[in-house]
């Protein structure tokens, strides 16, 4: 019996140790990661005109097809012109009468000048002739103004398009009485280009401003943003947009700021009032290069998301990561992993932290098909979420009058650089104020 037990013990000692479990591993690669932010926007026409009649009268004819494109200056409605023609003729007759009276008053005035010098008439009579002459002149001017007003009213009987755009439905039939106090006859909207308004949360707006300031102080190039629209079929709208306006205040009810982007709309696919999904892609140059890992390699526990990293001795280490956005089947890594490190992508159930494994190269290549995107060529003409100054062309398109203020700012800046400072009037209550480094710097 002792010999048998001893023989069993020797067999156990001679049993070979278990091999490390086989797992599939993948070398991490770094690639361009373009952050994308999606917002819900609403389409708004760049211009909208409510067509109204400027004179009161009956509609004589309508000269457009509802829902079609009309050109600026195109005839839309004709108000019955007969009453206005009669008024114009009446005012012209009154003007002729006033001119005739002026001719007589002028002749009497000139005769009076000759007679008063010889004493044939008194100065009182001369003053009466002068007053009559001046009154006749004023009457002619009044009649000329009445003729011009009557001519304008006659011109207003032809209602023309004030801009090129799509015209809406007609709200009044021929023979209807309309006037300045009536409802709009129809409306015209300019569809190309077109605006899309969307709300950006205040925390995102702050992050954008903070990033822009950080890059400016470090001498880095500013980021570029591509603004696109996702169509209902998840395809991208063919034309990229441009951010042209950021509101100057946060809406306290929503905690967000209004942002407006402009898009070409030659095929009129975007319609006023339509809801769309706005996608903004941020191109930040070298900062956009991040490690990418397969989503299948990521696990999660109470402490967060983690992966198993294999070292040079084939030991598996549990490592927690800070992950960013998803790129298809890959996940961008913000912190915790470097390009070139090996991680387990298959056989995770066989891995124990701190234990060796038998690594095998993965047959799948999740990095196949990755493409490097180019930043947009256009840049937004506004600050913060915009880049650069507002150009004179942009200012003219927006309808703003006067200069863009750049000249005045340059004059103030040049004065500061020359040590002169901005000139202050002697009556300025702030002329003796001590300089403030923060506000004056702004």
From TrEMBL:
Residue ranges of every copy of the Multidrug resistance protein MdtA-like alpha-helical hairpin domain listed in the record: 88-157
Multidrug resistance protein MdtA-like barrel-sandwich hybrid domain mapped to chain residues: 48-179
Residues forming coiled coils: 88-160
Top-level taxonomic group: Bacteria
Pfam families in the record: Beta-barrel_RND, BSH_RND, HH_MFP_RND, RND-MFP_C
Residue ranges with Basic and acidic residues bias: 384-397, 422-442
Keyword flag Coiled coil: yes
Residue span, Multidrug resistance protein MdtA-like beta-barrel domain: 193-282
Signal peptide residues on this chain, from the entry's feature table: none
Main subcellular location of this protein, as a coarse class: membrane
Compartment(s) where it occurs, according to its Swiss-Prot or TrEMBL record: Cell inner membrane
Record's bilayer topology term: Lipid-anchor
Record keywords: Coiled coil
Keyword ATP-binding: no
Domain Multidrug resistance protein MdtA-like C-terminal permuted SH3: 292-350
Region: Disordered, residue numbers: 356-442
Family the entry assigns: Belongs to the membrane fusion protein (MFP) (TC 8.A.1) family.
Protein name, as recorded: Efflux RND transporter periplasmic adaptor subunit
Organism of provenance: Microbulbifer celer
């Amino acid at each position: 019996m002792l010999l048998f037990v001893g023989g069993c013990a020797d067999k156990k000692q001679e049993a070979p140790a278990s091999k490390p479990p086989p797992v599939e591993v993948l070398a991490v690669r770094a690639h361009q990661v373009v952050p994308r932010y999606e917002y819900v926007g609403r389409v708004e026409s760049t211009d909208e005109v409510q067509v109204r009649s400027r004179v009161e009268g009956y509609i004589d004819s309508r000269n457009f097809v509802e829902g079609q494109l009309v050109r600026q200056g195109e005839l839309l409605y004709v108000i019955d012109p007969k009453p206005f023609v009669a008024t114009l003729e009446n005012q012209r007759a009154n003007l002729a009468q006033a001119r005739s009276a002026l001719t007589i008053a002028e002749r009497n005035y000139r005769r009076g000048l000759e007679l008063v010098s010889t004493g044939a008439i008194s100065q009182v009579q001369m003053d009466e002739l002068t007053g009559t002459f001046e009154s006749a002149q004023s009457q002619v001017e009044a009649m000329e103004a009445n003729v011009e007003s009557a001519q304008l009213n006659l011109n207003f009987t032809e209602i023309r398009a004030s801009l090129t755009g799509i015209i809406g439905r007609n709200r009044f039939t021929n023979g209807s009485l309309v006037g300045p106090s009536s409802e709009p006859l129809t409306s015209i909207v300019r569809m190309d280009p077109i605006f899309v308004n969307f709300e950006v949360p205040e925390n995102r707006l702050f992050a954008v401003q903070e990033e822009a300031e950080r890059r400016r102080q470090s001498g880095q190039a500013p980021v570029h943003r591509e603004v696109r629209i996702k169509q209902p079929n998840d395809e991208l709208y063919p034309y990229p947009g441009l951010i042209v306006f950021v509101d100057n205040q946060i809406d306290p009810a929503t905690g967000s700021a209004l942002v407006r982007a402009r898009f070409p709309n030659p095929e009129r696919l975007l319609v006023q009032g339509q809801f769309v999904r706005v996608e903004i892609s941020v191109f930040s140059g070298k900062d956009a290069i991040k490690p990418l890992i397969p989503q299948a390699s990521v696990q999660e526990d109470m402490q967060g998301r983690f992966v198993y990293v294999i070292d040079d001795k084939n030991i598996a280490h549990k490592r927690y990561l800070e992950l960013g956005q998803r790129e298809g089947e890959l996940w961008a890594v913000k912190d915790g992993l470097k390009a070139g490190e090996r991680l387990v992508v298959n056989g995770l159930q066989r891995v124990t932290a701190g234990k060796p494994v038998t690594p095998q190269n993965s047959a799948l290549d999740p990095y196949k098909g990755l493409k490097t995107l180019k930043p947009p060529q256009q840049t937004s003409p506004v600050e913060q979420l915009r880049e650069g100054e507002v150009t004179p062309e942009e200012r003219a398109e927006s309808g703003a009058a006067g200069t863009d203020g750049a000249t005045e700012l340059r004059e103030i800046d040049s004065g500061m650089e020359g040590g002169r400072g901005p000139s202050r009037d002697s009556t300025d209550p702030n002329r003796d104020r001590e300089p403030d480094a923060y506000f004056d710097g702004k």
